[in-house]
Design goal:
By secondary structure, the protein is of the alpha/beta class. It contains 15 helices and twelve strands.
Length: 445
């Protein structure tokens, strides 16, 4: 990492400002060349002209120089805030490259910050996910993790494992000495506490994944129960075709909408029924996939038609495919004469999807808000979840050798647990894993 990198840090498109970021040993000399200035005061915004390598004026911009370890990357960093738009930003970037920088790879600024000890992996992942946060609650959790909340939790767990490991090592080293008779029981109790803590964290994190990734809401039911009308009403425009002809929606339709503080993805599915048409069959299969992949399932039943075998079939499918999901059973078309009745089916809401769906919106908002009611620390990526699961596995595998006082094997499993837990924040060097992780970041970050 001896070369100097440069990239546009703002999104493509027309805006008032674009930011070009430079990091590395040549950052200061490059900006001096482009501005024709002899000095720049660190951490001060300087309004100055930017010239290309032919001394042609590109723009008047604000330049900020961050010195060495006081910057985000831990290297000399310069940020150029020029006027927005594709041409100006690209011209400034081109000038930095011609002056000795190279184009940065995706996530390379954050990767340098990691290697220079400015952030750990948990903070890097929080930065990456904050950019794509799907709710205000998610943004708050990620902001806390950027300040090290998850790192503190990981260090606490790591210290607990090392403390337990010390008990074992003392027993091995002083096997012939008089040690407390209940030492094994003490270690067992501490392992139980640790396993319970990690299990609670894991369960809380998995139940709140919708906060990070955006909640998926699947609207399901048999044909012509009002699914497309409900989607259009939630979006406040006619996205889906509404028709009296059964099977009009032949594939899933996905759209994003903001409900409360959450950006969610609503999936309008094809009507679920027995179908002979091959295309309709594929649409129904995708409907079942949508149920499985969703966080919340909204099942519609038609108040104006008598319950039939298709309605019963949908109830059975929901029992299989909507396990451990939030399920809302809704009676639709309540403005029409009531004909629907099915023993044992209780409705969460009754509405007319063509008119007022405010009661459903409120219900969805309450469900999503409830997902952030836990005070448990949250794991925000599959990598972190896998690491905690592997740690719990090693702790569990340590019980048996402890019971039979095979302490060398016991210590091996705890050492593995320490190593895996530490990988959440600062793993042992693994260039392939780090390249893959930081490569998923956006350019300029």
């Amino acid at each position: 990492m001896t070369d100097t990198i440069s990239a546009i840090a703002t999104a493509n498109g027309i805006g008032s400002i674009s930011i070009i970021r430079i990091s590395g040993d040549k950052a200061l000399s490059i900006i001096k060349t482009l501005t024709k200035r002899d000095t720049l005061t660190p951490r001060y915004a300087t309004l100055t002209n930017i010239y290309d390598n032919d001394n042609v004026l590109i723009d008047e911009a604000i330049v900020i120089y961050f010195q060495g370890m006081k910057s985000f990357t831990g290297e000399d960093v310069v940020e150029i805030q020029c006027h927005g738009g594709f041409i100006v930003a690209q011209s400034v970037l081109k000038a930095t490259l011609q002056s000795g920088a190279r184009l940065a790879n995706a996530g390379e600024f954050s990767k340098r910050a990691f290697f220079n000890g400015k952030i750990d992996l948990s903070e890097a992942e929080a930065i990456a996910q904050l950019i794509e946060a799907k709710s205000e609650d998610a943004a708050k959790i990620l902001a806390a993790q950027m300040k090290g909340s998850l790192k503190e939790f990981i260090e606490q767990v790591r210290d607990e494992i090392i403390y337990i490991l010390a008990y074992s090592e003392v027993t091995i080293d002083y096997a012939e000495e008089d040690l407390p008779e209940d030492l094994v029981q003490q270690i067992q109790a501490k392992l139980d506490e640790l396993h319970t803590l990690l299990e609670k964290t894991l369960i809380a994190s998995k139940s709140r994944q919708g906060l990070m990734q955006g909640f998926r809401v699947a609207i399901v039911g048999k044909p012509n129960v009002g699914k497309s009308s409900l989607l259009n009403r939630l979006l406040n425009y006619n996205r889906a075709i509404v028709s009296e002809i059964a099977g009009t929606t032949r594939d899933t339709i996905e759209e994003q909408v903001k409900i409360g503080t959450h950006l969610i993805r609503i999936v309008d599915t094809a009507g679920i029924r027995e179908a002979n048409d091959e295309i309709e069959k594929i649409g129904i299969e995708r409907s079942l996939e949508a149920i499985t992949e969703s966080d919340i399932v909204v099942a519609l039943f038609d108040n104006s038609r008598k319950a039939d075998e298709e309605d019963k079939k949908i109830i059975e499918l929901l029992k299989i495919n909507a396990v451990n999901k939030e399920l809302l059973i809704i009676k639709n078309k309540i403005d029409l004469t009531e004909k629907f009745s099915l023993d044992g089916l209780a409705f969460d809401l009754e509405l007319n999807s063509k008119n007022d769906v405010s009661s459903l919106v409120k219900k969805l908002e309450n469900i999503m808000d409830r997902s952030n009611s836990s005070d448990e620390i949250m794991l925000i990526s599959e990598r972190q979840i896998s690491a905690v699961e592997e740690t719990m596995k090693n702790i569990k595998e340590a019980y048996e050798p402890l019971e039979f006082q095979e302490l060398e094997i016991f210590s091996f499993h705890l050492n593995e647990a320490v190593k895996v837990m530490a990988s959440i924040t600062r793993p042992f060097e693994n260039d392939e894993m780090l390249d893959k992780m930081f490569g998923s970041f956006c350019l300029g970050k």
